[in-house]
């Protein structure tokens, strides 16, 4: 395995830091280790649906 393929110990994550608000923070979090019959997938891009964002200030956050 080359250095480029090595799994980092931490990764960046976008987290809601104040539940019930749109306040988010980018944090370094531990990279999980996959369990039996699981895989760890490297993401290069991600997004959020506008409908998820529009209801994020309510107690309910749905996903699809």
Describe the structure.
The mean pLDDT is 79. A two-stranded antiparallel ribbon has the order 1-2. It contains one helix and two strands. The chain has a domain at 1-32. Strand 1 (10-16) and strand 2 (24-30) form a beta hairpin. It has 64 residues and is mainly β. One of its GO terms (cellular component) is cytoplasm. GO terms for molecular function: alcohol dehydrogenase (NAD+) activity; metal ion binding. Keywords: Metal-binding, Oxidoreductase, Zinc.
How are the SSEs ordered, and which strands pair?
Elements: E1 10-16, E2 24-30, H1 50-54
GO molecular function: alcohol dehydrogenase (NAD+) activity; metal ion binding
Keywords: Metal-binding, Oxidoreductase, Zinc
Cofactor: Zn(2+)
List segments where confidence is low: pLDDT < 50 over at least 5 consecutive residues: none
Q: What is the strand arrangement across the widest sheet? A: 1-2
Give the overall shape: elongated
SS elements, strand count:
2
Over the alpha carbons, how many angstroms does the gyration radius reach? 15 Å
The ordered string of helix (H) and strand (E) elements is EEH
Which percent range describes the beta-strand content? Answer: 15-25%
Helix share bin: under 10%
The span between the termini is 36 Å
State the helix count: 1
Please describe the biggest sheet, giving its number of strands, its sense, and whether it closes into a barrel.
2 strands, antiparallel
Query: How confident overall, as mean pLDDT?
Result: 79
Structural class: mainly beta
Instruction: Give the oligomer, counting copies of the same chain as homo and different chains as hetero.
Output: single chain
